[in-house]
Amino acid sequence: MSALPPLTTIPAHLQTVADYQQQASQHLEEATWHYLQGGAMHELSVQENQLQFQDIQLIPRHLNDFSQAHTRVNLFGMDYPHPIFLAPIGHQALFHPQAEQATALAAELMQSNFVLSTLSNTHIEALNKENPYKWFQLYWQGDREQSIALIRLAEQHNYKAIVITIDAPHTGIRDRERKTFFQLPTEMPHPHASTNFEIGNLAADKHPIFQGLMKKAPKWKDIEWLIKNTKLPVILKGVLHPADAMKAVEYGVSGLIVSNHGGRVLDTTIPPLIALQKIRAVVPVNYPLFLDGGIRRGTDVFKAIALGASAVLIGRPYIYGLATAGALGVAHVLKILKEEFEITMALMGTPCLDDIDQDHIHQ
Prior knowledge:
By secondary structure, the protein is an alpha/beta fold. The protein has helices at 17-24, 30-37, 44-51, 99-109, 144-156, 175-179, 208-216, 220-228, 242-251, 272-280, 298-306, 316-348; strands spanning 57-58, 73-75, 78-80, 84-86, 114-116, 134-138, 162-165, 234-239, 255-259, 289-292, 311-314, 361-362.
């Protein structure tokens, strides 16, 4: 069955992220759908990222005053209207012809912070310069010169932070993708992706992964150098180990995105929600931590914040919206999660994010 074209209006039956997931599958070619849904190896981490929220129960408090209630969060000296951010996802032209343009428009409308991927099909400059709610995600470009060039572009175009993804120096082993023979279209534009990953002719005794690809991956000293060379906050994405979190603080990293890359890189890693608690225990009190992975309901957002997240990032959910109905779909997915979260806050008796803590949950 061939994929249906994207919708131009939102049908009444689309009321949850799960509804959008089901709908999106009808708008994508089979191999593209498996690319979006799939993960590494047995895909246990993909499942676990969502299941992690089921083990946590909510304990509401009642009779609190909500006259001054809000969902604002202050990060790096700036107020964000709510804590539901859009994670960096590359190649969005796979899911809708308007790609990141549609996503950015929806994010701006919903005042949601959008993280643009290095592997975007859309140029850094194409996003509205006046919209303050946008960060740029950097895949290390194999050398300092090419990496800093992208950061300079982001600075010039009013991006407010740099997110460096550190957990994917090599792509994951994705069985599902290989079985459906998924490949990116050759004509797909990637204005910011480097061609600098050619390993060239390695000596016979050198390993193509260890002495080849990993040689191009960033090291701690590169992160330190980047921090010194930009005024923007630098955030590391893909941190799961408390020792790495402590090291990041030491090196002057401004915040961490606790993530296992949606289960797409290394299977059976610790779920981000558990890693978040271990990391929160070792970093300074108000140090910004973000949870990325498995958010599907407003209650999930609440639980992540109760366990120490400053805000959360969603990935696949907004792509379901994009595939279904472009900017309209992304905006609706955000609206659904935002409203679910606000209602959860009201029913939990927590007027603002600072009130959400471990007293409100049972594990």
